[in-house]
Amino acid sequence: MINYSAIIKDSSPYFFYRIDGSVLFEVNRKYSFPGYIFTIKTPQRSDLFRFEIRRILSTKIKILWQDFEKTVSLEKEKNKYKLLVDGNVIYLNEKFKILGKYEASIIVNEKEIGFIREDNIFPYKKYIITFNIEDNINFYCLILFTIISTHFADGV
Q1: d(CA 63, CA 83)
Q2: Per 3-state DSSP, what percentage of the chain is helix, strand, and coil (rounded to 5)?
Q3: CA dist 106 to 34, 39, 142, Å?
């Protein structure tokens, strides 16, 4: 099992960590009427990914820029966002538990490869992300969770 964690607060930045406690990436947000622009940066402060969330009548998420090894795209099917990466389809089967605890299964090509569970640490929210095996696709699963978590964890 490969573990990561995310510490998300209602302000910027928030961080994703490796199991050894080192920072995998940080997420910064800035207001841009009528929504926010989020930038994912490496610990060396290089930009990796930028996306925008706009809310007027409905929520729209748009990828603005990316610097990954593989090109990613985002599509929405019903109420579920999917990240498409090099022929792979990644999505989360989300479950909100009683008392607001978040849980989700991580699905790649219709196969469960891991899960996410919320572990509150006041005043922040902590999420433990566990993968069954170590694979390059795990990083892109974390990117999808970053995008999706802005709705319920960051208060955007």
Answers
A1: 11
A2: 10, 60, 30
A3: 30, 22, 10
Q: What is the pLDDT of residues 25-82, one digit of tens each?
A: 999 888 888 889 999 999 888 999 999 998 888 888 999 999 999 999 999 998 899 9
- Whether the Cβ atoms of residue 8 and residue 153 lie closer than 8 Å to each other: yes
| 9-16 long-range contacts, CB within 8 A, separation 24+ | 9/123, 9/124, 9/125, 9/154, 10/154, 10/155, 14/124, 14/154, 16/142, 16/146
Report pTM.
0.91
- Alpha carbon distance 144, 65 (integer Å): 15
CA dist 32 and 116 (Å) reads: 29
Residue 152 phi/psi, 5-degree rounding, is -110, -25
